[in-house]
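Incident log, structure service

09:12 report received: a user says their structure output differs between two submissions of the same chain.
09:20 pulled the input from the user's history:
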Amino acid sequence: MTPRIDIAVDAGAWPDKRRLRTIARRAVAAGFAAGDLCCADGSELSLLCTDDARMRSVNRRWRGIDKPTNVLSFPGGAAAPGATAGPVLGDIVLSQETIAREAALDGKPFEHHLTHMIVHGLLHLFGYDHMDDGGAREMETIERRALASLGIDDPYAGH
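09:34 re-ran on a clean worker, output below:
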């Protein structure tokens, strides 16, 4: 089971909401399958699609880092890998400008990188992190599996 996804767009040159919803649903379903994630029936996930200015503000307020980033995750409760989450999984904040810039630098389609960032943010909601080599390897393995299931190339190849 996957959560209900609420999407808000407050800034940035995002695809239309219908396309965003399709991308988000596919990314979340792939992340759930690849990570063997579970959530309570009726769980919710929120995505805020914004620009670098808003992302910089959010990053500064919540992490003390005064610059934009591609994705931030705010868990709705205590989550741990392998645990069932819910009813509020949390919020994922995405910056269109940073994601577009990174996609262009890596020569990949915007939608592929956006999908990756949604999967990445989702894993953070379930307690995964990349603060050490072991955690990074575990997270990257799940991300690769999720993206491969959608026909998206390994985002870490060549890095």
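09:41 both user submissions now match this output. Likely a transient worker issue. Closing.
09:42 reviewer note: The chain has one domain: 4-149. The CA atoms of residues 60 and 66 lie 5 Å apart.
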